[in-house]
Give the backbone structure.
Amino acid sequence: MDSVVRVLLRVMPPIDRLLLTVSGGRFGSAPGRTLLLVTTGARSGQRRETPLFFVRDGARLVLIASKGGSRSHPDWYRNLRAHPECEVVLDGGTWRYRARDAAGAERERLWRLACDAYAGYQAYAERARPREIPVVVLESAA
């Protein structure tokens, strides 16, 4: 993984976590594109907060489990696999969602949507090979 990406993966999450928490999900490093995902730890059962870039697909939110092109899945993704119920802090509120992986044609469409919003995902996909980067769909659980 590129050293700049490594540094950003260490430096930006704490900054985004603080900005998103203080602003109720209104402001992150990429305003309008960053949310605070609240998951339950897969092994610990503890509350975990992760700032993430997202795209909208109608009422659904789409997350890309890229981990900057790492060959392993991010912890937040493993948490959602174990406990798909989650919360999202966004736009001044906290919302309940249920996560699932996109597959087939849906995955391809949502991957293209995410790549249109952030071209860096293509480079991440190349670096992550042979791992296919998961596309996660969050649907309202309200």
Observations:
- Residues 3-22 form the longest helix (20 residues).
- The chain has one domain: 3-140.
- DSSP finds four helices and seven strands in the chain.
- Helices lie at 3-22, 75-82, 104-117, 120-128.
